[in-house]
Amino acid sequence: MSIPAFGLGTFRLKDQVVIDSVSTALELGYRCIDTAQIYGNEAEVGKAISDSGVPRDDLFITTKIWVDNLSRDMLADSLKDSLDRLRTDRVDLTLIHWPSRTVPAAESLAALARAQSDGLTRAFGISNFTTAQMQEAIDAVGADQIATNQVELHPYLQNRKVADFARQHGIHITSYMTLAYGKVLKDPVLEAIAARHDATPAQVALAWAMQLGYAVIPSSTRRENLESNLRSRDLRLSQEDMAQIAALERGERLTSPASIAPDWD
Question: Is 176 a catalytic residue?
Answer without folding.
Answer: no
